[in-house]
Design brief:
CATH superfamily of the largest domain: TolB, C-terminal domain
Oligomer: single chain
Radius of gyration: 32 Å
Largest sheet: 5 strands, antiparallel
CATH architecture of the largest domain: 6 Propeller
Structural class: alpha+beta
Helix content: 10-25%
Number of helices: 12
Strand content: 25-35%
């Protein structure tokens, strides 16, 4: 608190120039009132100091020190407009006395978004002779921030966008602090942290109704038994909660660790420590889980990073445990602090906070996009007024990509930090998505099958998302629009399922139902390879075909005695002889690929059927497309 007082009063003792303002001529009564205000400021009681400062100024309107202190207090309270008004008043009283106040003046101008005026003020400050090295360093940092703000503004002109945060209201916010919002995939459940007495922090939930989120209630179960908790994330399906907790050496490894809790009909289960692959004797916090629950992102200040706090990720292994944590690397992590990661439900768009990347001052929010399994686009600052001269914290974005949730202590707060929502600017939104849910089951018995459902991006062949169905075989997966994907399901002992999803023209935010019947590996069982594609009028395989071919390869490797026939089929366009020849060559191309991958030739046969076995009407393009197909049939076990 003494440091705060020094910040406010710092320049009072540094004046070395002649000026018209003379502190010794100030009304003694005003001085006594001012001294009372200073006592409150020394204890960090800013609001309590305000009426005394106002009274001191009213008693003597020439009391420049009181006016400047009032400006400083309003700046600390983030009431930048009032702060600037008092700074301007002091400046009019004595321009010489005011000279060294141009640095805090510039900061408060920037708080209002007046970055050009802020840059002018800080440049004026830097030209003052004999200012301290510490002041020069602070001023140059602010100058860099103001220059960045002006550059960003020039490059990101969007006159249609209006930043208008909306308080989530009394159903969510109280006189306590509310922070770390997280939402499920359909935004139907909002969870967050609320502070209590001392170190007490509890997790609350609120369900979405037609008129908004209803009254938040304490999460049920064992999850709130321990008092010292913090950042949390809920899985997209609402079944898992991962959070930071400081539960002592009996349950943890050091400072805050990451824990997991599972939803049950009786409430949330007793938290389990995520173990040594995730946690260390240092600080681990601000978790974010990918929508397929396959990757956990978090922040840690462990040794071996690039700065203070770095971002890490961990991939869930086949045994269900999270694997060793991996640093997200240079370009994302800096010499500063990176924290509060958030992976959107599109599993491509990633938000986080950093004070080491170029920005407006303090921690800014950034977005980057996943380019493939291992690389990301460069972090992009979310810009003003989402980012300000203050520290920005965690951000959560709704599944439709339009709305963001964050914590702030704005003017309409119920007390301290409240939860707000606002519309994201178009260029920093995630991909629009649609949702597919359904059940994977045995085609013979109709029994649900626990298995893995994969979403593969056709252009790159990379796995965008991998979802494990529940014990009943039910799944829920998001499909980002704008690209084509292959949807595959694998389970040992069954023929794989594969289907192409072309989503460029699909409607966003829609839910599709897709139940998938898997055929047990049995004699004469067969499936259509829906995504085996060739060059037009050619038997040259297109790269997208590798997705399905590798699934077929896996079945043959897992069943070493299995023998199959690859059948090629065509529509009735063109001559029958040419169709037969092309279908035969296409079937052979598939067999050649499998042989080149190590499958014995005596396990594979191929045959072209031409147009002789249609499965649809050849009078329509849709029917002809279905007839142009490649199948495989089990001919020996």
């Amino acid at each position: 608190m003494k440091k705060l007082l020094l910040i406010i009063l710092y320049f009072v003792s540094t004046q070395v120039y002649a000026q018209t303002y003379n502190p010794e001529k100030i009304n003694k009564k005003a001085v006594k009132i001012y001294e009372q205000a200073i006592e409150y400021l020394a204890d960090g009681m800013l609001q309590e100091a305000v009426p005394f400062l106002q009274k001191a100024i009213a008693t003597d309107t020439n009391y420049v020190d009181a006016i400047l202190s009032m400006a400083g207090v309003y700046g600390q309270l983030k009431k930048y407009q009032q702060s600037i008004e008092y700074y301007d008043w002091a400046k009019r009283k004595d321009t010489v006395y005011f000279r060294q106040y141009h640095l805090p003046y510039s900061i408060n101008l920037a708080g209002l978004g007046k970055f050009q005026e802020a840059l002018t003020a800080v440049n004026y400050f830097l030209n003052i002779p004999k200012i301290s090295d510490r002041s020069i360093k602070a001023a140059n940092y602010r100058k860099k921030c103001f220059e960045f703000a002006l550059m960003y503004s020039a490059m990101n002109v969007d006159t249609s966008y209006s930043f208008a945060p909306e308080n989530l209201g009394d159903s969510i916010n109280t006189s306590n602090n509310e922070y770390y919002p997280s939402v499920t995939i359909d935004d139907s459940l909002l969870v967050f942290t609320r502070s209590g007495r001392g170190i007490r922090e509890d997790f609350y939930e609120s369900k979405l109704e037609k008129d908004g989120y209803r009254k938040a209630t304490l999460m049920k179960g064992d999850i709130n038994l321990e008092p010292s908790k913090g950042a949390l994330t809920i899985s997209a399906d609402g079944d898992w909660l991962i959070f930071a907790g400081n539960f002592g050496k009996e349950r943890g490894f050091g400072d805050f660790d990451l824990y997991i809790s599972f939803y049950t009909p009786e409430g949330w289960s007793e938290p389990e420590n995520l173990g040594r692959n995730i946690n260390t004797e240092f600080w681990e916090s601000s978790p974010s889980l990918s929508p397929d629950k396959r990757v956990l992102y978090f922040s840690s200040n462990r040794y071996g990073g690039h700065g203070g706090k770095d971002l890490y990720y961990s991939i869930r292994m086949s045994n269900g445990k999270f694997g060793p944590a991996v640093n997200m690397g240079e370009g994302i992590n800096t010499e500063g602090d990176e924290h509060s990661p958030f992976m959107h439900t599109d599993n491509q768009t990633f938000y986080f906070a950093s004070d080491g990347l170029p920005g407006y001052g303090g921690s800014d929010l950034f977005v980057m996009r996943k380019l493939d399994d291992t690389t990301w686009s460069e972090p992009e600052n979310l810009g003003y007024p989402i980012n300000t001269i203050d520290n920005e914290g965690s951000l959560a974005v709704s599944s439709d990509g339009l709305t963001a949730f964050f914590a702030s202590n704005r003017n309409d707060t119920r007390g301290g930090l409240d939860l707000y929502k606002f519309k994201l600017r178009k260029n920093i939104r995630p991909a629009r998505t649609l949702y597919v849910k359904g059940k994977v089951y045995d085609k013979i018995t109709n029994k649900g099958l626990p298995c893995t459902v994969e979403l593969i991006e056709n252009n790159t062949g990379g796995v965008l998302m991998k979802v494990q169905t529940d014990e009943l075989g039910e799944y829920f997966i998001t499909l980002p629009l704008g690209k084509n994907y292959t949807f595959t399901v694998n389970r040992k002992g069954y023929l794989f399922y594969s289907e192409l999803y072309e989503l460029k023209d699909k409607e966003a935010d829609s839910t599709y139902k897709k139940d998938i019947a898997l055929q047990p590996v049995a004699l004469n069982s067969n499936i259509v390879l829906k995504n085996i594609q060739f060059e037009s009028n050619s038997y040259q395989l297109l790269p997208v075909s590798l997705i399905e071919l590798n699934n077929l390869l896996k079945i043959l490797q897992e069943n070493p005695t299995l023998k199959i026939e690859i059948g090629g089929h065509s529509d009735n366009t063109g001559s029958s002889s040419e169709n037969l020849k092309l279908s035969t060559l296409r079937a052979k191309a598939v067999v050649d690929y499998l042989i080149n991958k190590g499958i014995a030739a005596n396990r594979l046969t191929y045959k072209g059927y031409g147009e002789t076995k249609p499965i649809a009407n050849n009078t329509t393009e849709e029917g002809r497309a279905k007839n142009r197909r490649t199948e495989f049939t089990v001919i020996a076990l």
